[in-house]
Write a structure and sequence with these properties.
By secondary structure, this protein is of the alpha+beta class. It contains 4 helices and 7 strands. Helix 1 packs across helix 2, helix 1 packs across helix 3 and helix 3 packs antiparallel against helix 4. Helices cover 34% and strands 17% of the residues. The protein has a 4-stranded mixed sheet, with no helix packed on it. A 3-stranded antiparallel sheet has the order 1-7-3, with no helix packed on it.
Length: 225
C-alpha cells in the first residue's frame, strides 16, 4: 500500500519541487491529509462495528469515523439476518414496537453519533452496524493511506491547488507591482481547482453501481401472498 511519504514525494515531483526547495515535506503531507478528508465526503469507506448490548439499554455510541448508516443488524448472527428499519425516535410507533433504529448525529467536535434501537436488548446480544466512514487522516509519514491506488492522482491534484493557493496568498501580502505574479498564481490556483473538481466528478461517474444497500421494504404496490 502507498504510504503518506510516498504520495507526498509524487506530489513534490508534480510541483517540480522534488528537492522540497519551495514546499516542505511537512506541508505536502499536511495537504494530502486535507485532500483525504475532502475525498471522504465523496468516496467514504464501508466499515462494520460490533456493538455489545447492555441489558435494557436503547442508546449506543458509534465509531468516531462514522459518516452515515448503511445497515443495522439486530440481533447479530440471526439466520437469515434481521435488519432494523430507520424511524425517527420521536415517531409514536418507535418506542411501542420492535424493529426500528434512529441516529443522533454528532453535533460538535469530540462527541460521537448515537444509535437508538426500539428493541429492549439483553446483555448477551450484539448489534452489527455497517456504516460509511471517513478515510484515516491521522497519519505519520510511514503510514499507509486508505485511498485506493487508482484514486491517488486525485489527492495530488488537490495538493497542486493547495500549493498554488499558498503562493497566491503570500504574493497578496506583498505584491510586486513590476511583474504579474499575482495574476499568474491566481490563474494557476483556479486551474488546479478546476482540474481537481473535474477529476472528482469523473471518478463519481466511473464508480461501480454496486456495494451494500439498505434493507428492502415493501410498499403499497408490492403484493403480499
Amino acid at each position: 500500500m502507498t504510504t503518506l511519504a510516498q504520495i507526498a514525494d509524487r506530489a513534490q515531483r508534480a510541483l517540480s519541487d522534488g528537492l522540497a526547495g519551495t514546499w516542505s515535506q511537512t506541508d505536502i503531507e499536511k495537504w494530502i491529509c486535507e485532500a483525504i478528508l475532502d475525498y471522504s465526503t465523496h468516496f467514504p469507506r464501508t466499515e462494520t462495528e460490533t456493538i455489545s448490548c447492555t441489558a435494557s439499554t436503547h442508546a449506543y455510541d458509534l465509531a468516531t469515523d462514522y459518516i452515515d448508516t448503511i445497515l443495522v443488524e439486530y440481533p447479530k448472527d440471526e439466520d437469515p439476518p434481521e435488519y432494523l428499519a430507520r424511524l425517527a425516535r420521536t415517531h409514536p410507533s418507535f418506542w411501542g414496537n420492535d424493529g426500528f433504529y434512529d441516529i443522533e448525529p454528532a453535533r460538535q467536535a469530540g462527541t460521537q453519533a448515537t444509535l437508538y434501537i426500539s428493541d429492549t436488548p439483553t446483555a448477551s446480544e450484539e448489534i452489527e452496524h455497517t456504516y460509511s466512514a471517513h478515510h484515516t487522516v491521522k497519519l505519520n509519514s510511514d503510514s499507509a493511506i486508505t485511498v485506493p491506488e487508482y484514486h491517488e492522482p486525485i489527492l495530488i491534484l488537490y495538493v497542486l491547488w493547495a500549493a498554488y493557493t499558498e503562493r497566491l496568498s503570500q504574493e497578496e501580502q506583498g505584491p510586486d507591482t513590476t511583474i504579474h505574479l499575482m495574476e499568474q498564481y491566481r490563474t494557476a490556483a483556479q486551474t488546479a481547482w478546476t482540474h481537481y473538481q473535474d477529476a472528482i466528478t469523473q471518478a463519481i461517474k466511473q464508480q461501480a453501481r454496486g456495494g451494500i444497500t439498505g434493507p428492502w421494504r415493501a410498499d403499497i404496490h408490492d403484493p403480499i401472498y
